[in-house]
Amino acid sequence: MDSTLTRISASAAPFSVNNFQKLHVLSSSSSTRISAKRLFCSDPKLEITSTQRPQYDAVLDEYAFEAQRLRLDSKAREAMAETSKREMEADTEDDPKAWKWVIRKRIWDFMEARNFAQNPRPVHHRIPNFVGASAAAKNLAGLEVFQNADCVKVNPDSPQKQVRFLTLSGGKKLLTPQPRLRTGFFSVLESNMLPPNAINEACTSVGVAKYGRPIGLDEKIKVDVIVIGSVAVDPNTGARLGKGEGFAELEYGMLRYMGAIDDSTPVVTSVHDCQLVDDIPVEKLLIHDVPVDIICTPTQVIFTNTTILKPQGIYWEKLSPEKLGQIRILRELKSRIERETGQKLPCGPSEKLPPTAQRRKK
C-alpha cells in the first residue's frame, strides 16, 4: 500500500419529534413488576414481550429516541465545529488545543477526499467510520487480550459497531456508555439478556437503551479491555486524538474511580491505516489524555509499547464549570467525593461553549 495512504505526516496535506419519551425502568421487585405479558410501545410493531426482558421491564419509543439522539448529535457537532474554528484561529501558537484541531481536520478532509469514509458522513467532528472497519474489528477480536476478556468496554461510535457485535456474540459482557453521557452513565449487555437474533440491534444506541442494564457508580465490575475510538493515533508512541469533546477521557477517569480498571488494563483502538500519524507531540498532551496500547487497522495490528502515563482519575482542576454542567453523572460524582472527603474539589477555568452545545441540567 502507498505510504501516503497509510500514514499522513504533517507535510501531507428523518424527521423531527417534539416529544421525546424517555426510557422508563421499573423495579424488578415483585411488588412493582408489570404483570402483563406484553409491553407496548407507541408503535404496535415494536412490542416487547416480558419474557424477553428478564432483568427489568421498559417502555421505549424507539423512533423518538433515535430522532432525539440524532438531533442532539447534530447540535453537538455544530458546537464542536464552532469551537474548532475558534481555537484554530487563536492568536497564540501556544494554544493548548489548536494543534489538535489541525491534525483532526487533516484526517477528516483526507478520509472524505479519498473516499475512505463511510456513513455517517461527513466524518468531520465524529469518530470517523471507515472502509474496512469490520476487518479492523476482526483483527481486534483476534487479540489474546480480547479473547481472554470477560468484560469489554467499547465506545458507542459507528466504526466500533462490529467490535460490539463480536463482544456480544463471543459471550462477553459489553460495557458501553450512553452517547456523550447525556442520558446516564454506562449500560451492560450480555447475550443471554437478549431475545433471539437481537445482537445486531443491541449494538446500536436504540438497542442499548432497549436491552441494556444501566449501572451506576457503585457497580462492582471489572473491565478487562477498553476499546476506544480515535481520529488520529501515533503508532510509535500510542498518543491518540479523539474528536475533541473529551468524553473518552471522562469515561476512563470514572472507571478508574470505580476501581473497574487500572494501569494494566489494555486500551485498544481500531482505525483506518490513513489515521496513523507521526506528528502528535507527546510533550503537548494533557494529563487526562488517554494513550493506546494496541492499534488495529484493516491491514495490521500494532503494539505501541507506549510509555505515556495513563490518567489516574478525573482531573477536576481541568474540568470547566460549563462542561460539568452538561453531564449529570459527573456532578453526582463530584458531590459524592466532596461529601466523603469534606473538601470542595477544584474546578477548571471557565470556557465559552457555543449556544448549540448547551444542555439543560437535569
TrEMBL record:
Q: Where is this region: Disordered?
A: 340-362
List the InterPro entries hit by this protein, alphabetically. FTHF_cligase, FTHF_cligase-like_sf, NagB/RpiA_transferase-like
Going by the entry's taxonomy, the superkingdom of the source organism is recorded as Eukaryota
**What is the protein named?**
5-formyltetrahydrofolate cyclo-ligase
